[in-house]
């Protein structure tokens, strides 16, 4: 059903609508805990959003890719180390990443925006 909705969006809608459809398809597969498929749709969302200059959906796709990576693990998803680290890093509203300070015992993390 989700694939048919994305296909309809691709045929009749704008790029924004297609990206919206791919993002929510990744969310739906995340709800179903099909993390490999969710990661694939997240990557597609990120690619389309980057191509069309829509940073909000680029970040939302990264969020879902991070959730899939954290749950399924980067090796299971076939991601390189740098991709999995990038996908699971937090972003601020401008798309940049905060500086992260981790204590020696790795239990307390503080973010500096």
Which features would summarize this protein structure in a list?
113 residues; mainly alpha; two-stranded antiparallel sheet; 6 helices; 7% strand; globular
The helix count comes to: 6
Low-confidence stretches: 98-113
From the alpha carbons, calculate the radius of gyration and give it in angstroms.
15 Å
Strand residues, percent: 5-15%
Overall mean pLDDT: 75
Strand order of the largest sheet: 1-2
Let me know the largest β-sheet.
Answer: 2 strands, antiparallel
Count of distinct strands? 2
Q: What structural category arises from helix and sheet content?
A: mainly alpha
First and last CA, distance: 40 Å
Helical proportion? 55-70%
Q: What is the ordering of alpha helices and beta strands?
A: HHHHHHEE
Using the alpha-carbon principal axes, give the shape. globular
The total tally of domains equals: 1
Can you give a write-up of this model?
With 113 residues, this protein is mostly helical. It has one domain (2-112). Helices cover 66% and strands 7% of the residues. The protein is built from 6 helices and 2 strands. It has helices at 2-12, 15-31, 35-52, 55-72, 74-77, 81-87, and strands spanning 99-102, 109-112. The chain has a two-stranded antiparallel ribbon with strand order 1-2. Strand 1 and strand 2 (109-112) form a beta hairpin. The longest helix has 18 residues, at 35-52. It starts with a helix and ends with a strand. Residues 98-113 have low confidence and may be disordered.
